[in-house]
Design brief:
The protein is α+β, with helices and mostly antiparallel strands and 119 residues long. 26% of the residues lie in helices and 34% in strands. InterPro entries: Dimeric_a/b-barrel, YCII.
Amino acid sequence: MRYAMLIFGDDREWTALSPADEEDLMKQVYAWYERWQPAGKIADGGAELEPRTTAKTVRAGGNGQPVITDGPYLELKEIIGGIVILECDDLDEATRVAATWPLGAGMSAVEIRPVMSRE
């Protein structure tokens, strides 16, 4: 079964990292992939998202037309900064895999959710 691993954090912490600290944290992330990809637990390599300042939000407007605004305007400190699609037998296994993610500056939490299948 597929599970979405949503990586939460404050992207302002990430952009404040020194180049050396960013490189160290990315080495930890690459090591995580090197551990789980050969084990067949990564269904999709995932995606790192650009900072919140690059986002656009589309909401339903009162007249039925979409309203587009800059950025994610929910009052949140943490936002989704990346996603990985896992292939695991069950939620417990997906949670065990996600629990090994290298949390650090700009990456403070990981949420695991089953991917809906409408087959």
